Amino acid sequence: PNALDDDDEDEGHTVVATARGIFNSNGGVLSSIETGVSIIIPQGAIPESVEQEIYFKVCRDNSILPPLDKEKGETLLSPLVMCGPHGLKFLKPVELRLPHCDPKTWQNKSLPGDPNYLVGANCVSVLIDHF
């Protein structure tokens, strides 16, 4: 069975884009051009002689979002992204790059106390070592 077609996982979600690929120790990039979401896999993140399927789904799901107060100017800045396969661990962190829609105030900032996040002009990068 294909993990991307798992209906249980998509219950309550509207999947707007999917991407998947097979990667090895050379690394690579998995991206969704239409959404701007990408995963950058560095060389050595996947063990030698392993071919690993990696996928993500970009979803729209208002049911699991925290309540947003539009009167205070709160807004969702990036899409919901589900990465898999669940439980996959990397030897080196991979970069999950998410677009955001507020380049004026978020440009080139990092979150305090955590070097694993970087906010650029039009994307947020998060370094993660597992799904």
Automatic annotation (TrEMBL):
Entry superkingdom: Eukaryota
Signal sequence interval, chain numbering: none
InterPro entries cross-referenced by the UniProt entry: UNC5A-D, ZU5_dom
SMART domains: ZU5
Sequence ranges assigned to domain ZU5 in this UniProt record: 17-131
Gene3D superfamilies: 2.60.220.30
Name of one Pfam family that matches: ZU5
Protein name: Tight junction protein ZO-1
Species this chain originates from: Xenotaenia resolanae
